[in-house]
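Course assignment 3, question 2. Fill in each field.
Student: A.L.
Task: Predict the tertiary structure for the chain below.
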Amino acid sequence: MSSTKNFLISHFENGYADELYYDAQGQCMYIRCYGIQFSFHNIIVTNEISTFANSELNNPVEWDGVRLQPISKDLFLLAKDIHSRNIEVNQINEVFKHIIEDK
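Answer field:
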């Protein structure tokens, strides 16, 4: 997973992620894509992450408070629907809200 975070950091300006934040105190990286916030804890700090963490691109964000592990199957199915083009990009946030509300 470290390579994914490094890729997103090095290509942040390309818009692959809506939001990136490395919290040094919590040793946590927050990544938001299509309105869904993912958090990665106790990550290994690479040179890319360290450089990003000390840059002006590293803007603090709050955790949304949504635990994704309990809905991982639903997120996987959502990803499959997006990949199959059964769900359009502009519908992702609304579908995600329904997944959360149903749990």
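Instructor remarks: Strands lie at 19-23, 28-33, 36-41. The longest strand covers residues 28-33.
Grade: pending
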